[in-house]
Amino acid sequence: MVEPVARIRPYKTEDEKQVRFVIAKAAMEGLASANTKTILNPVSLSLWVLLASFLIQYMGWWPKPGDGILAYISLMLPFGSAVVPIILFSDWNNRWYFEDISQRVLRGPDMVNFQEYYSKYPASGIWILEFAGRFIGLIAIDASLSERNNSEHINSETKTAVVRHVYIDEPYRTTGIQKDLIDYAVQSAFTSDPSVAQVKASSSSLREYVQKGLDEAGFKYEGVKETAGLFRWKVNARVLTRDDWKKRQNHAS
């Protein structure tokens, strides 16, 4: 029996539909995490208990001595009802940020033609991760910003490539395979264009598997780029310099 294997390959034009779907999905996937963190926040939990208690008191549903266990089980209904407005409030206040991010991503310059965009510069690339022949993830690195900066004589001493997209299917995230995918793309960027001095990326606790992969690949914290959602979760800027990458390569060997 042949064991299923994982492989990383370059993007093909026939991947376009799947890639567009995954990029859109990745832009919104932090919303579920933001809603969960909002609902499980101590403030939200306290408010939930207060709303449920008020509803039970108002309706006179508190069990009386001798009512039996079924009377207590019936309290699940008001507690379930009380959490609904908290869920709606959470989604209402978190969604706007992720919809804005989604629009920014979907209007990105690479979304017109992936093949053409990522083949313009040696350090750019978009790669597909497969397991047993099945699409399970992708990563895209964009070095075009460096070329534009150089042509405009802005920051021309430092050529930068940017991790534009990262995604791994949920069942495979616990394996840590995202680190292998990031390592592969970073190595390609640095080796394809010796003038690239650094690779930058963004991360947040709302996409923990991406943040963990970047950490394990050697990306260092640079600062906060923006905040996300109701509780203003930090979206951090990360960077991996060529020097740090070389040190990691030498240590690994």
Strand content: 15-25%
Number of domains: 2
Low-confidence stretches: 147-156
At the third CATH level, what is the topology name of the largest domain? Answer: Aminopeptidase
Q: Can you summarize the main beta sheet?
A: 7 strands, mixed
Number of helices: 10
CATH superfamily descriptor of the largest domain: Gcn5-related N-acetyltransferase (GNAT)
- The backbone outline, from C-alpha atoms, is elongated
Domain N-acetyltransferase: 85-238
Organism: Lentinula lateritia
Keywords: Membrane, Transferase, Transmembrane, Transmembrane helix
Transmembrane segments: 45-63, 69-89
Describe the 3D structure.
The protein is α+β, with helices and mostly antiparallel strands and 253 residues long. It has 2 domains: 6-15 and 112-252, Aminopeptidase, CATH 3.40.630; 32-105, no CATH class. Helices cover 50% and strands 23% of the residues. It contains 10 helices and 7 strands. The chain has helices at residues 16-28, 30-39, 42-59, 69-73, 76-106, 114-118, 144-151, 177-192, 208-216, 242-252; strands at residues 6-10, 125-131, 134-142, 159-168, 196-204, 220-228, 233-241. Strands 1-2-3-4-5-7-6 form a 7-stranded mixed β-sheet, sandwiched between helices. Helix 1 packs across helix 5, helix 2 (30-39) packs antiparallel against helix 5 (76-106) and helix 8 (177-192) crosses helix 9 (208-216). The longest helix has 31 residues, at 76-106. It is elongated, with a radius of gyration of 23 Å. Mean pLDDT is 89; it is low at 147-156.
